[in-house]
Design a protein that fits this description.
Layout: E1 2-9, H1 11-18, E2 35-39, E3 45-49, E4 61-62, E5 69-71, H2 78-83, H3 86-98, E6 106-110, H4 115-126, E7 131-136, H5 139-144, E8 152-155, H6 161-172, E9 175-180, H7 184-192, E10 194-202, H8 215-221, E11 224-227, H9 234-250, E12 258-262, H10 266-272, E13 279-283
Parallel strand pairs: 6-7, 6-9, 7-8, 9-10, 10-11, 12-13
Antiparallel strand pairs: 1-2, 1-4, 1-13, 2-3, 3-5
Helix pairs in contact: 3-4, 3-9, 6-7
Length: about 280
């Protein structure tokens, strides 16, 4: 039993509650929330994920399996700890596990202006990327990623796939690892801008659920497309990645952007979450 101190409001929470996700509850009532941070009954400070149904994280208490706990380092506040869970793992692990990035490689982040993308920019910088190119629609938000470590930005605008591919290739000097939060035509354009053996790590599909990728494109580049979810790498992989993120946060090497919202105001937070570029954290 965890005394919850902070619970993030994630896009996946909204989809789960809508009943369209494989984690959507089969019976009601249930409590929303896939992750949070708080204190165990014996006083340990922990991050936790996937509470035992029907006990979600958006509550004063949550029931959690011991295997789903990660102890927190001293100096890390609960809201930062919660934000670095789902969002942090989806930023770091596509680079280290899905894309097997090595120092000096060129990273392209598609849809990189949101919460996860902004963390991915910083992770790529700390991992020693040769260049970090952020692709998105909001030009002001794109420009702000330069403060986090982006070396170039590309606005999607009304460009054709060929035009967008050319822009991404010029900005990045060719992509080695593509972190894809968009899919659709944007992903195809980025693949066309890839260097030999480019790896695209597929995480989200905000720009479309389907795209046609020519077989000849994959063969000519030796390209690979990898579907990503943290669970594919097991509890040891996710715990190790999470500890890397918390070490960076405690030492001040990454900026973790969040806003605390009283749990009683969950309705308004739920409504505005899709429009924010920082994490909303519910505080009981």
């Amino acid at each position: 039993m965890i005394e919850v101190a902070a619970a993030t409001l994630n896009a996946v929470d909204i989809v789960i509650a809508a009943g369209t996700h494989y984690l959507s509850p089969r019976s009601l009532p249930t409590v929303s929330g896939i992750e949070g941070a708080g204190t165990t009954q014996d006083g340990r400070r922990v991050y936790f994920s996937l509470p035992v149904s029907p006990y979600g994280s958006m509550a004063q208490q949550a029931l959690v399996r011991t295997s789903s706990l990660v102890e927190l380092p001293d100096g890390l506040d609960f809201s930062t700890a919660a934000t670095l869970g789902n969002a942090g793992l989806a930023a770091l692990m596509p680079l280290t596990h899905g894309g097997r990035m090595t120092p000096g490689e060129n990273v392209v982040i598609l849809g990189g202006t949101g919460v996860v993308g902004r963390l991915a920019v910083q992770a790529a910088r700390l991992l020693g990327a040769g260049s970090i190119t952020v692709v998105g629609r909001d030009e002001a938000a794109l420009e702000s990623t330069r403060d986090l470590g982006a070396t170039a930005t590309v606005a999607i605008g009304e460009r054709s796939v060929d035009e967008l591919s050319t822009a991404i290739g010029q900005a990045s000097s060719g992509a080695d690892v593509i972190v894809d939060y968009t899919w659709g035509a944007v992903a195809l354009a980025a693949l066309r801008a890839g260097n030999r053996l480019v790896r695209l790590v597929q995480i989200g599909d905000r720009a479309g659920a389907e795209v046609t990728v020519p077989a000849q494109l994959l063969r000519s580049l030796g390209a690979s497309i990898v579907g990503f979810m943290p669970m594919h790498y097991g509890p040891d992989g996710t715990s190790q990645a999470y500890r890397t993120l918390t070490d960076w946060a405690v030492s001040g090497r990454i900026a973790v952007e969040y806003e605390n919202v009283p749990l009683a105001e969950v309705a308004s937070a739920w409504e505005r979450a899709p429009r924010t570029r920082h994490k909303l954290v519910l505080v009981p």
